[in-house]
Design a protein that fits this description.
The chain has about 400 residues and is α/β, with parallel strands linked by helices. It is built from 12 helices and 12 strands. The chain folds into 2 domains: about 140 residues, Alpha-Beta Complex (Aspartate Aminotransferase, domain 1); about 240 residues, Aspartate Aminotransferase, domain 2. About 50% of the residues are buried. Bound molecules: 4'-deoxy-4'-aminopyridoxal-5'-phosphate (PMP).
Length: about 400
């Protein structure tokens, strides 16, 4: 099996797997319990929180563990909306976001609208880049939140979130970013203060599934989504998912230690695959070739090192995914969450592509456990599948 679907999910870091296995039968204490078993579980959770704060360069008390990025994104949007309503005599206000967000943002915005709020989605340019001026233009007097994805999960474009965050702050708005595909993959620094809310999912960065976090900048007020116990300093109730948080901690630590090397290896493999893909007539790579932006990401590039979106003329991506799967290559026809939905991807459509082009767009996403030999082998299979489908 050659796994080129790392944007859907990543393999669990072997050290995280080992640590979680060791804890699974022994570490059953409840972190809220006052006794030794409780204290031990609590120290595991707090150590993971420290690893998150170290990686994202923020304070530990700004990290709130959640069940994943879907919850973190919903919390950022609906929690800030409920806070705004409660502070503004039940007025609902307005949110600015983009047309290339993940469904966990878009669907939360729709829910907000059903409750009486309103939102504006800013379009990207044809390369999947959000212009800060467009965000500025979309802001209204009652806008309280701007939410922009850091790195798009389908095309890998990195947005100028630092600049957008500053614009939001100039107008007194909060700034949220869905950082799922940035966290653990590219350097992030929350220390500059231009981001208020930042969502992460562990399984996209070699941690376990079902756990993530929301960073809430010190002093930022948003209402909870979940009410109950006093976990997570009273802001996110529910007994902590101790074992998964422990594995997440190892993944965060491992990202901090290995990021430089991983970026180098992953981009070399991606560059190779792009070069090979271009040898096939009728291939276009989406979302590449932008000028550098050096905002909160002290960056080298404007594309995620491992995400490649290719539109292949005459090749339906769903047929291609099946053909590749039969030969042992895992890729994706868009976001995994949208699999089974016959609609062409909203992100590819937002680039100005036709419905046909969007249906012919496939994503290969490379991760740190891939090897260069696999890329070359996968390409031979890709070439055969393209020929077979075009015939
Ligand atoms: N945002 C982005 C950009 C994603 O890629 C994903 C995962 N597909 C999510 C949010 C949601 O993460 P999870 O499914 O782990 O909650």
């Amino acid at each position: 099996m050659i796994y080129l679907d790392n944007a859907a999910t990543t393999r669990l870091d072997p050290q995280a797997a080992e640590y979680m296995t060791a804890l699974l039968s022994e570490e059953y204490g409840n972190p809220s319990s006052a006794h030794a078993m409780g204290r031990s579980a609590k120290s595991i959770v707090e150590s993971a929180r420290r690893s998150a704060a170290d990686l994202f360069r923020c304070r530990e008390n700004e990290i709130f563990f959640t069940s994943g990025a879907t919850e973190a994104n919903n919390w950022a949007i609906l929690g800030s909306a409920m806070q705004y309503r409660s502070d503004h005599r039940r007025k609902m206000g307005h949110i600015v976001s983009t047309a290339i967000e993940h469904h966990s943002v878009l669907r939360a915005l729709e829910a907000f609208e059903r409750e009486g709020g309103s939102y504006t989605l800013v379009e990207s340019d044809s390369r999947g880049y959000i212009r800060p001026e467009a965000i500025k233009k979309a802001m209204r007097r009652d806008t309280f939140l701007v939410s922009v994805i850091s790195v798009n999960n389908e095309i890998g474009t990195i947005q100028p979130v630092g600049e957008i965050g500053e614009l939001a702050h100039e107008r007194g708005c909060l700034f949220h970013t869905d950082a799922v595909q940035a966290a653990g993959h590219i350097p992030v620094s929350l220390g500059s203060g231009c981001v208020d809310l930042f969502s992460v999912s562990a399984h996209k960065m070699y941690g376990p599934k079902g756990v993530g976090l929301l960073y809430i900048r010190d002093g930022v007020k948003i209402l909870p989504l979940l009410y109950g116990g006093m976990q997570e300093r009273g802001r996110r109730a529910g007994t902590e998912n101790v074992i998964s948080i422990a594995g997440f901690g190892t993944a965060l630590e491992s990202a901090r230690m290995n990021m430089g090397d991983a970026i180098k290896r992953v981009s070399q493999m991606a560059d190779k695959l792009i070069e090979l893909l271009y040898t096939i007539p009728g291939v276009e790579i989406n979302g590449s070739g932008l000028e550098a932006n050096e905002e909160i990401f002290d960056l080298f590039n404007t594309r995620h090192p491992g995400i490649i979106s290719a539109t292949i003329e005459g090749v339906n991506a769903e047929a291609m995914v099946i053909a590749l799967d039969q030969r042992g290559v895992c890729a994706s026809a868009g976001a995994a969450c949208a699999t089974g939905v016959s609609e062409p991807s909203h992100v590819i459509r937002a680039l100005g592509k036709t419905e046909e082009e969007a249906k012919n767009t496939i994503r290969f996403s490379i991760g740190r456990y891939n090897r260069m030999e696999e890329i070359e082998e996968a390409f031979e299979i890709i070439k055969e599948c393209v020929q077979q489908i075009r015939q």
